[in-house]
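Late entry, written up from scratch paper. The run itself happened at the end of the previous shift, but nothing got recorded in the book at the time, so transcribing now.
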Amino acid sequence: MFDFTHKNILVTGGSGGIGEAIVNSFNCNRGNVTSIGSQDYDLRSDRAIQQLLTDLPNIDVCVNCAGINKIDNLHEIEEQDFDTIMQVNVKAPFMISQHVSKHMKRSGRGKIVNVASIWGDKTITKRLCYTTSKSALIGMTKTLATELAEHNIQVNTISPGFTDTKLTRNVLTDPQISELVSKVPMKRMATPQEIANAVIFLCSDLNTYITGQNIIIDGGFSIT
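Output as recorded:
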């Protein structure tokens, strides 16, 4: 159904969880994938990002999936932590999108998908930095979509809800996971592949008219 033959694809945060599922899906659909993990480039550094951009081929499809989080109460947040989260979750996607869209404009087409979170739309305590960054990413996506639409470049956000990754299993206990799942109408977490499926569709030739949207993938959690 999907065919990314002859398309150069960039995926940041591609070494685990949702990012790994996205990379595998593109590979299964014949894409030429450049996958960037934390061991390859440090997105906390402008210099490292600039080096990444220098080393890239011309990119046809870009998925900004890399992200970090730190859970703290308002008065416990260190300024450096706030800056670092904004750097990785917002500035890095901005710099990368600014760069790859130049080739996309010349070729007259392109796809960019930014991976946000349900916590960019909703929030809970101790998520100030993360919610701020993901809300900013959703807003940035809308403006990118507006500016790039005339060049046939579509820019969208996906916002995953609770997803069954190794990180989730490492951070939360089984009782905590059960409590979360009880709040989801579908009574389970998403699989990384389910999130990847939405990304693949948005980046494929089947998507010809969706742009500037935030697709929430949470089993109905955000509507309750």
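The mean pLDDT is 96.
(Scratch paper discarded after transcription.)
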